[in-house]
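Form P-L/3: holo structure prediction, ligand iron/sulfur cluster.
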Amino acid sequence: MQNTATPTHCPYCALQCGMNLTPVPDGTVEVSERTDFPVNRGALCGKGRTAPAVLASSVRLTSPLVRSGGELVPASWDEALDRIAAGLGRTRAEHGPDAVGVFGGGGLTNEKAYTLGKFARVALGTSQIDYNGRFCMSSAAAAGIKAFGLDRGLPFPLEDIPKSGCVILVGSNLAETMPPSLRFFHELRENGGTLIVIDPRRTKTAEQADLHLAPRPGTDLALALGLLHLVIAEGRVDEEYVQERTVGWEDARAAAMAHWPEYVERITGVSVPQLRETVRLFCEPESAMVLTARGPEQQSKGTDTVGAWINLCLATGRAGRPLSGYGCLTGQGNGQGGREHGQKADQLPGYRKLDDPAARRHVAEVWGVDPDSLPGPGRSAYELLDALGTDIKSLLLMASNPVVSAPRAAHIEERIRSLDFLAVCDVVLSETAALADVVLPVTQWAEETGTTTNLEGRVLLRRRAITPPENIRSDLEVLHELAARLGVEKGFPTDPEEVFEELRRASAGGPADYSGITYRRLVEEDGVFWPCPGGVGGAGAVDSVEPGDPAAAPAPAPGNPAGLTPGTPGTPGTTAGGPEAPADAAANPGAPADAAANPATPEDAAGGPVAQRSAAGRPTVTGDTADGAHPGTPRLFLDRFATPDGRARFVAVSHRAVAEEPDEEYPVLLTTGRVVAQYQSGAQTRRVAELNAAAPGPFVELHPRLAARLGAVEGDPVAVVSRRGRAVAPARITNAIRPDTVFMPFHWPGEGRANTLTNPALDPTSRMPEFKACAVRLEAVRG
Ligand code: SF4
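OUTPUT (holo model):
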């Protein structure tokens, strides 16, 4: 066992905070600060600090389990793997490959997400694969692709935030979801910038804002349109920018002009003076940003809602300018990378579209298969789960717990129970794993090496710091063994670096091009921003990185304490001579800013399919770093967008109501979200004593007026009833929420499961369910 510190990253959210892990002789693992990593500079939230507790947890799975006589009982690996191969194989033989489903997670490393997608399409031959990231930020991804031709959570590093003039945070409670990121917003305000928070609740994040707008849940689209209306009416449109860098303005303008401020006030509950003040604060500084999170995205009109916020950025000339623009704060640890490499229903590695013939040919060549053998796009996450037990008879599930996290969860639980066969890979017996026919215990973050891509598009190396317990295997080993049992002996390596090398080739030339990234570079440069094209297998030799290897520790250059390289994020203010500096190469030194002028392929020159283009526009760039490797791309769109003509697209959108408006029977809106001490479905964090003590269970947050009407006092059990079911949790009474809205966190199963109530109405583009607004009634629960 190594006893030196290994620099690595947190297993949880998309911030991917850096931390050092040191094994202790008593078998535990110590977390210490890793101040060199620029995202968190040593700070960790309680979840990250206590993450090692799950490694040594007494409830950790220590053996494969198989169902026998109705019970899950320990079994050998061979028996468990044989059963899975037989279960999936039988379904495939009897009902065809699409009767087998695969469900992944945004917590899987890039290597695992890539291999899972390949396993589904090559070893199983099924089109039915999607993942829980569909429930996370798929609306922002769809809107980003529509507007910019490319989706990368933030198109700039977090370090740009403090130097901006104004940030509008829409539906993000980052004080609870990713607390270390708050420092960027504190610095923003210290530097004289303004923070505006939009949230129906006065959250801990909203408390730190200069201005808090509390719209009715599900009305963010109308709010953005009202702001754009005022931008136009007050003559604040950046006409030159709109003319030169966008298309579609006239239609978007007309749609916004139909949303008078007074009309928007009636819809949203945000007053006209507040709308005017927001426009003033956003438009007056030289630079400004809009950052969205789950609030506007988890709606049945999430894509249009995000599109409306992007319109605001485009009309005011913000997108693709230094210290400005639109970004999405992704949620899960590898929410970004998890959607780029093939576990999404409609995607191939490199963020290529599955129905694009050229993409299919490229990836099929890397995989050594016939492109025609690759299935087409499958169902989206909710639709896949909803088809369990009917069209889909067997399911392999990794890194997800839909019994708690899916909308209309009681129905989804029933669908899962109706499967012919369910296999789950997990570290603990989650609520979904407890329903499985076979459960495989897999390695955890600190016990394996792999890459993740954080919310900035920064590809990172999570390093193995400790040896896994006996009888535990990695997800990659599981897929290798299952593929072999299904008759595919080759093509499923178990070494993460070997998988990454293949991923580099598969992603080469795609929108999310990782081909210039190597494990060695990730260590030396503290992460590399994609797109990073490069000679695969060329520049940047790939060396193995061992746990605790002192040579593996990042070595900041003298006088460069953050360890920045020419391609990593300094700030435009420091590296380019200030915000007035030219908005392209100077702000992004070494980045391929001249992509428009240097089309790499005939398709590029012809403005060919966006899915086949690197965002940077050229697949190979040399001479940017000392060894000739591409430096990565911290900032996107500074000279052109990733559309065929380089211009961003306005979308003409109009307000529409939530899918389920309150009525006499269900008069209140429910919105759901997170608390600081729990993560996602809570499968891991609910098993950490310190976190459980801080957040032991669900609650119903409601306004005193609603509580009085109900006759409830603080702590009284309250039943929340929707058309899909009933959940009961103690009342938490506060003025920090609108009187027409109640809030429940969704981390818990059982009686207080918030997702029993939520509405699976889907966004037509992203297929995102409407987690953020549904109609409910409240009932007092007596004695
Ligand atoms: Fe950082 Fe997120 Fe981990 Fe907390 S959960 S330590 S914010 S990466």
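COMMENT: Residues 10, 12-13, 15-17, 40, 44-45, 47-48, 178-180 surround iron/sulfur cluster (CB under 6 Å).
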